[in-house]
């Protein structure tokens, strides 16, 4: 295989991985508030991309405006998840009953979207550059893929900087560690929780907008995105958002690599195999500590 | 007055017994009627509903073991279902194996796959595990789709032997119904036996508190793998039966949506009950028929119902009918049968062990020798490293250096349950009981490492298993008696007072037949009466030849009860000896009261 092809595959892998990484990041945002994982997170991503398709293709709305509107709607959906599947559940941390409620709510969202947008994947036009690949020396690549990588990396770095350096970020971390103590310290933990879910929804929308032009806006693709995003998170480490993002990059490379060097059909088998292997060797992930 | 009361109580108890008996009898006749009903329905459609119901009862009862009792949430159970279905189909279609051979092979093979699926569960918990099970479901789906002719890929496998019996020209499922109904009844019976056995107690315990289960002598690895294996066996059996009922398999029927259906059956009926899977499966099988034209919305409804169940009825429909705990078992009058160890001297020696957490030394080269048959106490200010010492001895944390020897054998590398089995038991500083289990079951958990019944013996209630359970039960009652909890055997542990939970923990620890018992601040938070009672219990334990190692802040109590006292300060031993000597030791006085000020005159 020519080295140009390898570089191209590397870029495709990183682009896909960047999307998984952002899904992982949107997981961490919610996880940081009450150690809960939204098992329907992928559905929020799909909702974002479908809203995007409707507005951009159907309504000829400019992409940026569509992104803002979609992010607002999905943020509301994420708050609905918090209200219905997490906050209302009594003794939410006991027996992991929230796994079932978020899973159930995710399936509801998935079904509703299929009722609205149908079951077939929809094409989302590439909005970064044109469909023509650009030439960098001897390597050809899609501007969309390059854009996805850049945007995702910028968002991930900004997110980590926010978490570490701002007062608000510290409040979020304090809430995650001990909600009661945080509220005794004068942090409005309710605001922190709402803000985190809304932010998670917005991140999911961004993922939706970035992934749809590369793959499709697939009303049925939510569960797989949920799983892939979570695998990324687990590989990176549950407590570490930036670790989750790097886990996503790794997962994307692994997926594209196994699809091109081994076989497209065995791609997912290899990915899941990698997950189980990581869990056996290093259950806390490569960047995290197991609570 | 009291005589009248007890007479009334006895009458009430008697009445309750007749009511339960009547209820049991009518339930039996009802069940029998349901079992024979399909034989009189010649319509294959309605018979088919019964058959599918029984198949789901088998699958969901198995799922109840792993997700309900053992608390390992499985969101990918349809994957196991598929393994069973495909195994029998491949054997039957491609290798012309008879169903009576291919179905058991499919169930056993699925059990094996379940065992493999359980391996990640040893390392990962909670949401990780739920994810692994989802991933497993996908994995099976992808493997089938990528499997070409072997698995039939997307078009599925056709021509699986259908268990039709032709009666007078028209076919029906009577014969198959008899088979699946018997298997379903057997499954429920086996699950009931398992849940009541040492395995069921272990599953309940590890769901409540994994570390505490290990300390109580449960090999958590084995218990988890057993739950996965049993559960997978029934899922595989059910899947195989389904394949033969349908005469074909297609991966479409084993997606995540099917896993959702299985989970819903369990939650709807009520997890951790025997009737739950039966009721839940019945409703979910009837639902598509009842929904009729709006069946297209079924998955949406399923998802919604799951959320509503979690919010409003987390214990399922069964919780609406569950009788309130009867309370007040007859007090045991049998004498305590503790083992008497005084003739077997097994000294425990802690030799120079150290432990530091991120640079903070919590135990530095501590040396303690515990003489058998004595009460040995360890005192010291907060942060002196006392609890760390107990955690190291009981195997929960490994020392950085040094040795712990019990009966001249090194135990510092052993797992907690192995240490318990050797005869070193402990209780926790912050009370740790198995919250939603009864007082009696809490104590019975302690017997886990002394009972021998395997899965098969427990499933079929072998005579040996029944005998050892009876003996253990008598012992558990006697121990409850000893610690002053007689008559409260049926009380749920979480509803008991702090002090009672503490003594319950002691009873559980004693149930594992220890040579040495470590008590970590048992008097903390007790009233003075409770402390007095505790003292009596400790003396009774000592009188039975069991060595007691006591960690306590309450100096009066310690001095009163101990034979030897060791004082620890900042991870170092500063004094050791009989209470009187230690009380007057200048180093101890300094550690507790500070250095006396040097005055000029």
What's a concise summary of this model?
Chain A has 291 residues and is an all-alpha fold. Chain A has helices spanning 3-34, 41-58, 63-87, 97-117, 143-165, 167-177, 179-184, 189-214, 222-236, 241-261, 267-281; strands spanning 134-136, 139-141.
Structure, explained:
- The complex is a heterodimer of chains A (291) and B (601).
- Chain A has helices spanning 3-34, 41-58, 63-87, 97-117, 143-165, 167-177, 179-184, 189-214, 222-236, 241-261, 267-281, and strands at residues 134-136, 139-141.
- Chain A has 291 residues and is mainly alpha-helical.
- Chain A has one domain (3-281): ABC transporter involved in vitamin B12 uptake, BtuC, CATH 1.10.3470.
- Chain A has a two-stranded antiparallel sheet with strand order 1-2.
- In chain A, a hairpin with a 2-residue loop joins strand 1 and strand 2 (139-141).
- In chain A, helix 2 packs across helix 9, helix 3 crosses helix 8 (189-214) and helix 9 crosses helix 10 (241-261).
- Chain A is globular, with a radius of gyration of 19 Å.
- Chain B has helices at 2-40, 44-69, 77-94, 99-123, 126-146, 148-151, 174-196, 198-208, 210-215, 220-246, 256-269, 275-291, 298-312, 318-321, 386-393, 416-422, 439-445, 455-459, 463-482, 498-511, 528-543, 555-561, 579-583, 586-593; strands spanning 157-158, 165-167, 170-172, 248-249, 348-357, 360-370, 375-379, 401-406, 409-410, 424-427, 516-520, 547-551, 564-569, 572-577.
- With 601 residues, chain B is of the alpha/beta class.
- Chain B folds into 2 domains: 43-318, ABC transporter involved in vitamin B12 uptake, BtuC (Orthogonal Bundle), CATH 1.10.3470; 348-593, P-loop containing nucleotide triphosphate hydrolases (Rossmann fold).
- In chain B, a hairpin with a 2-residue loop joins strand 5 and strand 6 (360-370).
- The longest helix of chain B has 39 residues, at 2-40.
- The interface between A and B is large, with 43 and 40 residues.
């Amino acid at each position: 295989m020519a080295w140009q092809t390898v570089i191209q595959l590397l870029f495709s892998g990183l682009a896909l991985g960047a999307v998984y990484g952002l899904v992982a990041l949107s997981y961490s945002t919610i996880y940081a508030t009450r150690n809960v994982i939204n098992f329907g997170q992928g559905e929020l991503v799909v909702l974002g991309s479908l809203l995007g398709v409707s507005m951009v293709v159907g309504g000829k709305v400019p992409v940026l405006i569509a992104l803002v509107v979609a992010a607002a709607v999905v943020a509301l959906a994420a708050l609905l998840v918090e209200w219905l599947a997490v906050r209302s559940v009594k003794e939410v941390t006991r027996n992991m009953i929230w796994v079932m409620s978020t899973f159930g709510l995710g399936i509801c969202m998935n079904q509703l979207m299929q009722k609205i947008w149908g079951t077939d994947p929809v094409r989302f036009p590439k909005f970064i550059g044109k469909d023509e690949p650009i030439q960098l020396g001897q390597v050809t690549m899609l501007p969309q893929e390059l854009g996805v990588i850049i945007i995702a990396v910028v968002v991930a770095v900004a997110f980590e900087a926010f978490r570490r350096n701002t007062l608000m970020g510290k409040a979020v971390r304090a809430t995650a560690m001990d909600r009661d103590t945080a509220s005794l310290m004068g942090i409005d933990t309710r605001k922190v929780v709402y803000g985190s879910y809304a932010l998670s929804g917005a991140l999911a929308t961004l993922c939706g907008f970035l992934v749809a032009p590369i793959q499709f806006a697939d009303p049925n693709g939510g569960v797989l995105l949920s799983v892939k995003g979570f695998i990324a998170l687990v590989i990176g480490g549950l407590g570490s958002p930036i670790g989750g993002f790097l886990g996503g990059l790794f997962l994307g490379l692994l997926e594209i690599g196994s699809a091109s060097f081994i076989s497209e059909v065995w791609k997912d088998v290899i990915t899941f195999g990698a997950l189980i292997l990581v869990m056996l060797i290093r259950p806390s992930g490569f960047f995290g500590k197991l609570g | 007055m009291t005589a009248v009361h007890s007479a009334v109580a006895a009458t009430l108890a008697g009445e309750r017994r007749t009511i339960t008996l009547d209820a049991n009898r009518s339930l039996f006749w009802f069940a029998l009627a349901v079992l024979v009903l399909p034989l009189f329905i010649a319509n294959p459609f309605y018979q088919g509903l019964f058959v599918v119901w029984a198949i789901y009862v088998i699958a969901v009862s198995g799922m109840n073991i792993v997700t309900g009792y053992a608390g390992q949430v499985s969101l990918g159970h349809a994957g196991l279902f598929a393994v069973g279905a495909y195994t029998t189909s491949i054997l039957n279609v491609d290798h012309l194996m008879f169903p009576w051979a291919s179905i058991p092979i499919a169930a056993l093979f699925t059990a094996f796959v379940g065992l493999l699926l359980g391996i990640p569960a040893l390392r990962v918990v909670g949401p990780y595990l739920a994810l692994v099970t989802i991933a497993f479901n996908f994995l099976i789906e992808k493997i089938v789709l990528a499997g070409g002719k072997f698995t039939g890929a997307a078009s599925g496998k056709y021509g699986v032997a259908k268990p039709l019996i032709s009666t007078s020209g028209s076919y029906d499922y009577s014969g198959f119904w008899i088979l699946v109904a018997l298997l379903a009844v057997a499954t429920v019976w086996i699950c009931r036996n398992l849940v009541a056995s040492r395995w069921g107690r272990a599953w309940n315990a590890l769901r409540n508190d994994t570390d505490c289960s290990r300390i109580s002598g449960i090999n958590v690895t084995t218990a988890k793998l057993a739950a996965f294996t049993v559960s997978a066996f029934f899922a595989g059996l059910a899947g195989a039966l389904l394949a033969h009922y349908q005469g074909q398999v297609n991966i479409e029927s084993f997606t995540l949506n099917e896993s959702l259906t299985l989970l819903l059956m369990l939650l709807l009926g009520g997890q951790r009950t025997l009737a739950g899977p039966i009721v839940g499966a019945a409703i979910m099988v009837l639902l598509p028929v009842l929904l009729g034209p709006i069946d297209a919305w079924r998955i949406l409804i399923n998802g919604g119902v799951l959320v509503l169940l979690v919010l409003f009825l987390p214990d399922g429909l069964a919780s609406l009918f569950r009788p309130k705990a009867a309370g007040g078992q007859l007090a045991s009058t049998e004498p305590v049968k503790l083992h008497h160890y005084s003739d077997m001297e097994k000294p425990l020696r802690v030799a120079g062990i150290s432990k530091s957490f991120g640079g903070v030394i919590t135990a530095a080269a501590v040396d303690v020798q515990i003489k058998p048959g004595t009460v040995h106490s360890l005192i010291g200010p907060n942060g002196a490293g006392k609890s760390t010492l107990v955690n190291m001895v009981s195997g929960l944390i490994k020392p950085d250096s040094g040795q712990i020897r019990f009966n001249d054998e090194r135990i510092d590398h052993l797992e907690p349950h192995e240490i318990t089995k050797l005869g070193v038991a402990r209780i926790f500083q912050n009370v740790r009981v198995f919250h939603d289990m009864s007082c009696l079951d809490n104590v019975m958990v302690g017997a886990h490492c002394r009972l021998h019944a395997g899965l098969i013996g427990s499933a079929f209630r072998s005579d040996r298993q029944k005998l050892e359970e009876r003996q253990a039960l008598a012992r558990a009652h006697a121990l409850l008696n000893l610690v002053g909890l007689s008559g409260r055997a049926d009380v749920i542990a979480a509803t008991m007072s702090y002090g009672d939970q503490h003594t319950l923990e002691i009873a559980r620890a004693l149930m594992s037949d220890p040579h040495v018992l470590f008590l970590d601040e048992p008097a903390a938070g007790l009233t003075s009466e409770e402390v007095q009672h505790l003292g009596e219990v400790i003396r009774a334990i000592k009188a039975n030849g069991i060595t007691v190692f006591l960690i306590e802040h309450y100096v009066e109590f310690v001095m009163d009860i101990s034979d030897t006292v060791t004082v620890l300060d900042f991870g170092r031993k500063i004094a050791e000896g009989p209470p009187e000597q230690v009380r007057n030791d200048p180093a101890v006085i300094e550690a507790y009261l500070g250095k006396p000020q040097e005055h000029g005159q």
